[in-house]
């Protein structure tokens, strides 16, 4: 049997996402205390939004993430697969692609529409120090999560995991 895997330029990024997201997790998120299951960080709503199948294996999840990278055009940031690509993509997985892209757009001073298009990519390319952009984006992400964590009813149970994830991403810079 031939195993299908994502393109090489995505492998390390996707492996990192799956490692940080974990396996299959059940969260009491639904109405009336119903459980919502996430598979490798992929929720039923996220899968539906992007027209992706429920992943049963890590390989399935990896292919879903590759398809998502292409659908959101985040794949265009993966060359080279550097710290900026990693920071933007992890932010997008964790907080939504539009949110991460808007923060990147603010850094490169283009319209913040949440879509990664030619103007944003050109503005990113204009900055020769992608590592510097990655550090500045990480700072914006910390500020963003700080605001989210101000509402303990929505975020308190996730705070420890989110902060651990930020610590992991800081180590990658």
Concise overview:
This protein has helices at residues 8-21, 44-49, 58-71, 83-95, 97-108, 118-126, 130-148, 152-155, 159-171; strands spanning 24-27, 36-39. By secondary structure, the chain is mainly alpha-helical.
Describe the protein's architecture and organization.
It is a single chain. The protein has a two-stranded antiparallel ribbon. Helix 1 crosses helix 3, helix 4 packs across helix 5 and helix 5 crosses helix 7. A hairpin with an 8-residue loop joins strand 1 and strand 2. It is globular, with a radius of gyration of 16 Å. It folds into 2 domains: 71 residues, no CATH class; 92 residues, Chitosanase, subunit A, domain 1. It starts with 7 loop residues before the first helix and ends with a helix. The mean pLDDT is 84. With 173 residues, it is mainly α.
List the helices and strands and how they pair.
Blueprint: H1 8-21, E1 24-27, E2 36-39, H2 44-49, H3 58-71, H4 83-95, H5 97-108, H6 118-126, H7 130-148, H8 152-155, H9 159-171
Antiparallel strand pairs: 1-2
Helix pairs in contact: 1-3, 4-5, 4-7, 5-7, 7-9
- Binned, the helix content reads 55-70%
Structural domains: how many? 2
Whole-number mean pLDDT: 84
In DSSP terms (H or I, runs of 4 or more residues), the helix count works out at: 9
